[in-house]
Specification:
single chain, 108 residues, mainly beta, NE0471 N-terminal domain-like, three-stranded antiparallel β-sheet
Length: 108
């Protein structure tokens, strides 16, 4: 079976994204890797301008400011390279690139 790759980044792309449990999001990648992400970890690793300083790259969002009970409300595709997640805490400006999601994949 051929592995589907992002034509620009030459990296695997998600083939399935689903809620694995009330606290976990699971992504199956085109190379067969399955990553299960704690959703609070994803929220704490948002790279939007409200969470990370655009000029310095310094983290603005304090991990302690994100409640462990935060949950994704909606996931929306952004082109062929990312997803946008609207969170239960009202945050909705973050774009999670596939590359960033792959970097955040916990050791399985």
């Amino acid at each position: 079976m051929a592995v589907v790759l992002d034509p620009i980044m030459n990296s695997p792309v998600p083939t399935e994204i689903k809620q694995a449990s009330s606290t976990e999001l699971q992504i199956t990648w085109s190379d067969g890797q399955v990553c299960t992400y704690p959703v609070a970890h994803l929220r704490r690793n948002c790279r939007c301008a409200a969470c990370v300083d655009e000029w310095t790259g310094a983290q603005i969002l304090k991990p302690s400011d994100v409640n462990d009970s935060v949950k994704p409300i909606t996931l929306n595709p952004v082109g062929n390279y990312a997803i946008n997640i609207e969170w239960s805490d009202g945050h909705k400006s973050g774009i999670y690139t596939f590359e960033h999601l792959r970097e955040l994949c916990p050791a399985q």
